[in-house]
Design brief:
The complex is a heterotrimer of chains A (334), B (562) and C (390). With 334 residues, chain A is α/β, with parallel strands linked by helices. Helix content of chain A is 34%, strand content 13%. In chain A, strands 3-2-4-5-7-6-8-9 form an eight-stranded mixed sheet, with helices on both faces. In chain A, a hairpin with a 2-residue loop joins strand 8 and strand 9. Chain B has 562 residues and is of the alpha/beta class. Chain B has a five-stranded parallel sheet, with helices on both faces. The longest helix of chain B is centred in the last third of the chain and has 20 residues. With 390 residues, chain C is an alpha/beta fold. Chain C is built from twelve helices and 16 strands. In chain C, the strands form three sheets. Chain C has a seven-stranded mixed sheet, with helices on both faces. Chain C has a six-stranded mixed sheet with strand order 10-12-11-14-15-16, with helices on both faces. Chain C has a two-stranded antiparallel ribbon with strand order 1-8. In chain C, strand 6, helix 6 and strand 7 form a beta-alpha-beta unit. The chains are: A alpha/beta (334), B alpha/beta (562), C alpha/beta (390). At the A-B interface, strand 1, helix 1, helix 2 and helix 10 of A face strand 1, helix 18, helix 19 and strand 19 of B. Strand 3 of chain A pairs parallel with strand 9 of chain C.
């Protein structure tokens, strides 16, 4: 049996790290939790966006875990100002670069709290004014940095510290805000949703947005092991099931019109997804209200599948089963 | 003392100063596990490894990896019953990899391009080992001894090497040009072939034991088993293997209009097919065993290769499974038929197995020839001491004959063999044992490692891809020596190699590198020490286990930190 | 060249002369005219800059912050509620040590709703860590705006130029606008030491632990104190270039021997000066104008107050339940003097109430006849108060 741990490797890791065949926007040593979906998503986005970017980052986990002064994990020009002004900071950066005749692309990063809720106004203003900014929302569906409070992105019936389940409540009473439709209503050139479970799809969407001179928006479903209550090793599995159940559709919109959706080859029941997460554990109790909520969530998934036409007609190499096929040598389709 | 920066700005990538690896309670390790194809291969080939090399565009290295275990891939790619494919995990996903077709392709490529066997030049003082029998076991032992730095004298009673491959396997399964080319190349790698030297006639075993450091005996089974029905034997009895040899060497065959072949092994099936090729209209196989198929206990199924059975049926051979012969129907001394009945192996109350004939199922089959093909035994000529009046040698797992230090045996001369690849495996193991014997080294401690189970793969990263089957000669065109199964071309071989799920070994797919949230997996341009393409940077790995969970091949395991 | 210009127009022209590259603003009376005028300059091609019409003051402040760190000179203006809405960003800009210049067209804060002038808005953000300079007239507003850029960019601290709303912004005055050459000679191109740049990718806005937060605050405090030198230097250099100076940190007018002085901020100082000229019979009175409120010029103030018996602090805001804001700070500064004057602290002219010339004799009368009051609203008419509040 060969069972080689790598400390014996003769390759100097620091040299190896410097010569990795990809652009590294976020360096190791950041303080994200084990299996953090957001850390992975941000790495994938910056990797695809490349070095000629400048980042405005909202207050939140990503900001906190990457920049504990005097350290920073970023290898990109980066600024965190406040929770609710990321759209405007990015707009200012973009205006300045434009005034200086520079082509550096501005990225804005925010969580769902900073995007769906408190930063929504400045985001809307930025989109309306047509700034050349790619805004990426890392959607982990609650205020994780402050202790797992519900946001307008928290899915229906999910437990958070401010939407706990109890005798009178089955978790969050309200629905997840349909942010993409609202964003799309700004008539921007490109808006899309993506998932950490599909890195090629993220790359494709980032590259597409990078090519557009104008406001673009990317919503990336990024599991939070701590907040969702699953093992860090399951982050990709959970994210994949969110897509494969239809609960988190991966769609693309141009000027408000739906232009593409990742087909689901074989829709999975929502219980496959929900059952892996503590935040939905109350739905698996022997309680008629729990059953009703499970049915409700299944209906929401089915509505997405129908509304966005997610059910594939045949096996598609870019569908929910094929979109992340690996090949020897690391070749992926994007 | 750290000094504050204006506005508390920070320099890029400085979190590298903070080793998040200290958080870890478990660590990912590259955990090679044998693929089921590797476990299943009697010759010891690691198909996963060489399919990987071919998929990387290195056919010659792939061939070298094969011949690291089995020097006869052009032969085994054609004649092996490929248990590797039955074991292949991909079979549970869509269809098993067509391993034998790729093996055959690589074997043929080596012949075509003249790729050299990886054998180093021998020193003048290289110790000498004798190998008796130039069939697959002897050839394999000779070759592996040569690779281990031994000079080998390979003796055979026949003028040509090949053994069973030449004497029992018909050319439509193994064309003679392929057999000749591969064996010739193998012998030319440095084996001293001594043809027409028969043990007990041209040299004595004791002489060999004196003159050589060790002796490997692979004489095959040359003696036909006794066969009769209640003591009755037709006067014109022919034995299957003898007829086959005659057909292959001289080209002659008995004349008959209807033949019953008794037995369920490869000889029975080949005999039946040859008879059909020679124009016998009615060819029957009567066997105690059942036809192979899904759900059939392998212990009860015919021992012949299933695909050969199927092809025989396509060619018009009629098989009577689970049938026992009750009597021969003779007219004078001439056979005119057999009476047979349904029978089955069933457990007795004490658990032992008996054959039960079912009364009332008797039928008569009109045939003018009955040909037993029930197997052979070792011909003990010149080796009587070693055989001790048994039908087969009884060596230990490595091939050593107890009580006879320096003497080893393998191949069909062991009980329960009967395949070329098993013989190759015996030769390889015996060569290693001889090497240890001559150098006075103890055998390595056996570590049982389970093959990677299907459930340990992460199938989310694979797509269904149909298996490419090699071309098969339609039954109507099968005649004479025409080879039935065709070759894959290079693209088809690549296609099949590309379907390999790389069970238990690194696929170099970049998944761990792509999905690590902590950038703690680093890609190595060439190869890492452990044969993977990645190293873990434990300074930063937090031990989340995502890489292990998402590794498509089950190559990463999580290990508790001590 | 002197020309008659409305305050807003004059400030707009002064901003344009500083060659800002990004301007962001949201409408709020009375700063609106300034940015409207700038928008027109941009529309007419007389100013090449990115003019960002944001959706709130919060975003206005955020846009200039983003632009400034991305390497551009910026400008914004606001007042009243807008300043309060910006509040969080104002702290953030200053703590980040980013050189941003803005005009606060001072105005009262709701409720009750008032659109007219006082200085409650800028006083509400005095602790945000900005340099605050208060202008007496529109010429000073023009000159201070130009100086503010140099101060901000030398100190890497933001500067808020406070100009009384309506009183100055909507008043036509003859203004001596400097030439572009003069401004260019005074103000080098924008340079920010921590400009974000992909070639030098630093991170700004990090998380600072308790191990360093007090040091960060101390450094910020010291930077503001030291900024006094930059304010003085800018005013002196501007004087050398244009012949105009506005007193640096603090301006003193009138008789050096006077035993009574009136201290104030902003345009009310002009009213007091006019009244003093009309009333020589009331004796020598010194007029002290705080031009810099942050940094607070305590030392200069003590020097100006040497020999005084009485000091009237007249301010345009209050801290309800506490009293005067400026008054409290002045008293604190004078506490260390060997013989501090008596301090009479009044608020006056809140919510745009007219400050007539008669205020001057009435103040002097109060000094002469009353014991110093901790704090009072000078122009409140008790008859208008609800009974329970009289």
């Amino acid at each position: 049996m060969r069972m080689n741990a790598t400390p014996e490797t003769p390759i100097p890791l620091a040299d190896l790290r410097r010569s990795q065949p990809r652009f590294q926007g976020i360096e190791s040593g950041h303080r994200a939790c084990l299996g953090c979906g957001e850390a992975l998503a941000a790495r994938l986005v910056t990797e695809a966006a490349g070095p000629d970017v400048m980042i405005a980052n909202a207050t939140g986990c990503l900001e906190i875990f990457t920049t504990p002064w005097p350290e920073s994990a970023w290898r990109l020009p980066w600024m965190h100002s406040l929770f609710e002004n990321t759209g405007a900071i990015a707009a200012g950066m973009e205006a300045a670069l434009k005034a200086q005749g520079k082509s550096t692309k501005v990225l804005a990063f925010g969580g769902d709290g900073g995007t769906f809720d408190i930063g929504f106004q400045s985001l809307s203003g930025m989109l309306e004014r047509g700034h050349n900014v790619l805004y990426v929302c890392y959607d982990n569906e609650a205020y994780m940095n402050t202790g797992i409070q519900r946001s307008s992105s928290t899915p229906h019936a999910a437990m958070t510290t401010t939407s706990p389940a109890g005798k009178e409540r089955m978790g969050k009473r309200h629905l997840k805000k349909d942010i993409l439709t609202i964003i799309a209503a700004h008539h921007i050139p490109y808006a899309a949703s993506a998932s950490v479970a599909y890195p090629s799809d993220i790359r494709k969407k980032v590259r597409r947005a990078m090519e557009i001179n104008g406001p673009t928006f990317l919503l990336i479903h990024s599991p939070c092991p701590l907040g969702w209550g699953h093992d860090g090793a399951l982050s990709i599995e959970v994210a994949r099931l969110a897509v494969q159940t239809g609960l988190f559709p991966l769609i693309e919109l141009e000027r408000g019109e739906l232009i593409g959706a990742m087909p689901i080859r074989q829709p999975r029941p929502v219980t496959d997804y929900l059952g892996l997460q503590q935040r939905f554990s109350h739905l698996f109790k022997d309680d008629p209200r729990a059953r009703e909520e499970l049915e409700h969530l299944q209906a929401l998934a089915e509505r997405n599948i129908e509304y966005y036409g997610l059910k594939g007609l045949h096996d598609d190499p870019r569908d929910s089963e094929g979109a992340d096929t690996v090949r020897r040598g690391g070749q992926r389709w994007a | 003392m750290t000094e504050l920066t204006r506005g508390a700005y920070a320099l890029p990538g400085t979190t590298l100063a903070f080793k998040t690896g200290t958080w870890r309670v478990q660590r990912p390790v590259h955990h090679y596990r044998p693929a089921p194809c590797h476990h299943a291969c009697p010759a010891g080939e690691d198909a996963q490894a060489w399919l990987g090399l071919l998929a990387q565009g290195q056919p010659q290295r792939a061939w070298e990896a094969i011949v690291g275990a089995n020097p006869l891939p052009a032969i085994t790619g054609r004649v092996c019953h490929h248990p590797c494919e039955s074991a292949c995990n991909r079979g549970q996903y869509d269809e098993a990899i067509g391993i034998h077709g790729v093996e055959r392709f690589l074997g043929d490529e080596a012949i075509r391009h003249g790729w050299a066997y990886p054998v180093a030049a021998l020193g003048a003082d290289a110790p000498v080992v004798a190998v008796v029998g130039a069939g697959p076991a002897g050839l394999s032992a000779a070759y592996h001894l040569l690779r281990g730095g031994y000079r080998v004298d390979l003796f055979d009673s026949l003028p040509l090497a090949g053994g069973t491959c030449r004497m029992a396997i018909p050319p439509y399964r193994l064309p003679r040009p392929v057999l000749d080319a591969e064996i010739e190349r193998l012998l030319a790698s440095g084996i001293r072939f001594r043809p027409q030297q028969r043990l007990g006639r041209d040299m004595a075993l004791d002489e060999l034991r004196q003159d050589y450091g060790a002796v490997f005996l692979a004489p095959g089974t040359q003696k036909n088993r006794e066969w009769s029905i209640d003591g009755v034997v037709p006067r014109d009895l022919h034995v299957g293997l003898d007829l086959l040899k005659e057909w292959m060497t001289v080209g002659s065959m008995i004349q008959a209009s209807s033949v019953a072949i008794i037995g369920g092994g490869n000889t029975a099936v080949d005999m039946a097919r040859v008879l059909r090729r020679c124009g016998v209209p009615q060819v029957h196989i009567v066997t105690h065993e059942s036809l192979p198929g899904a759900g059939v206990d392998p212990g009860d199924a015919m021992r012949a290769i299933p695909r050969e059975i199927a092809q025989a049926q396509e060619e018009g051979v009629i098989i009577h499974p689970h049938r026992g012969i009750l009597r021969l129907i003779l007219r004078g001394e001439r056979t005119v038929g057999i009476e047979m009945a349904h029978m089955k192996k069933l457990p007795r109350p004490d658990g032992s197995i008996q054959r039960v004939v079912f009364e009332g199922t008797e039928t008569v089959l009109h045939v003018d020839q009955v040909i037993p093909a029930i197997g052979q035994e070792v011909d003990g000529f010149g080796m009587d001491d070693l055989l001790d009046r048994q039908a087969f040698f009884a060596p230990d797992a490595e091939g050593a004959l107890p009580g006879h230090p320096g003497v080893y045996a393998g191949g069909d001369a062991r009980p329960g063999r009967g395949s070329v690849s098993a013989a190759v495996g015996d030769g390889r193991r015996a060569a290693a044992a001889i090497d240890r014997f001559l150098r006075g080294i103890a055998p390595p401690a056996e570590q049982a490692v389970e093959a990677l189970a299907f459930s340990q793969l992460n199938l989310n990263y694979f797509e269904h891809v149909a298996r490419l089957e090699p071309p098969i000669l339609p039954p109507g065109q099968r005649s004479g020596h025409a080879e039935i199964e065709g070759s894959l071309d290079a693209n088809q071989a690549d296609h099949e190699a590309g379907r390999c799920l790389s069970c238990g070994n690194c696929l170099a797919c970049d998944n761990c590198w792509t999905l690590c949230p902590d950038s703690a997996v680093l890609k190595v341009t060439e190869r890492a020490e452990d044969g993977s393409h990645y190293v873990f940077d434990y300074d930063y790995c937090k031990g989340c286990g995502l890489c292990a969970r998402e590794c498509p091949c089950g190559f990463i395991a999580m290990q508790e930190e001590s | 060249m002197r020309q008659a210009l409305e305050g807003s127009q004059a400030i707009a022209r002064a901003v344009a002369l500083c060659r800002p590259q990004v301007i962001a603003a949201y409408p709020i009376t009375p700063q609106t005219h300034i940015v409207e005028n700038i928008a027109k300059l941009v529309a007419d091609g007389r100013l090449a800059c990115e003019f960002v019409s944001v959706e709130s003051e919060f975003s206005a402040a955020s846009v200039v912050l983003g632009a400034a760190v991305a390497g551009s000179r910026t400008y914004t203006a606001s007042a009243s509620q807008g300043i309060l809405l910006m509040g969080e960003v104002l702290y953030n800009i200053a703590g980040s040590r980013v050189p941003v210049v803005m005009t606060c067209a001072n105005r009262a804060v709701s409720a009750p709703l008032s659109i007219w002038n006082d200085q409650q808005d800028s006083m509400a953000v005095r602790d945000a860590g900005w340099i605050q300079l208060y202008c007496a007239d529109n010429q000073e507003a023009v000159d201070t705006t130009i100086q503010a850029y140099r101060i901000a960019e030398r100190t890497e601290l933001p500067v808020m130029v406070c100009v009384d709303g309506f009183t100055l912004t909507h008043t036509l005055e003859p203004i001596d606008l400097p030439t572009q050459e003069q401004v260019d000679a005074f103000l080098p191109p924008y340079r920010f030491s921590r400009t974000l740049d992909p070639r030098r990718p630093i991170s700004m806005g990090t998380l600072v632990s308790p191990d360093f937060y007090p040091e960060a605050r101390h450094a910020h405090h010291q930077a503001l104190l030291k900024a006094a030198d930059a304010i003085l230097a800018a005013d002196a250099d501007w004087h050398a270039q244009t012949g105009r100076s506005h007193g640096g940190l603090l301006q003193v007018e009138g008789d050096a021997d006077a035993r009574i002085a009136i201290l104030s901020l902003g345009s009310v100082c002009g009213t007091l000066a006019d009244a003093r000229e009309m009333h020589p019979e009331l004796g020598p009175v010194k007029l002290i104008r705080l031009r810099a409120f942050r940094p607070f010029p305590a030392e200069s103030l003590r020097e100006a107050c040497a020999g005084l018996t009485d000091l009237v602090v007249l301010e345009r805001a209050l801290s309800p339940g506490g009293g005067g804001i400026v008054g409290a700070e002045v008293k604190a500064a004078l506490f260390d003097m060997p013989a501090p004057p008596r301090v009479h602290n009044f608020a006056v002219g809140l919510g745009g109430r007219d400050i007539p010339l008669e205020t001057y004799p009435r103040l002097l009368q109060a000094v002469a006849t009353q014991a110093p009051q901790p704090f009072a609203l000078f122009d409140v008419d008790p008859g208008k108060l609800p009974v329970e509040d009289r």
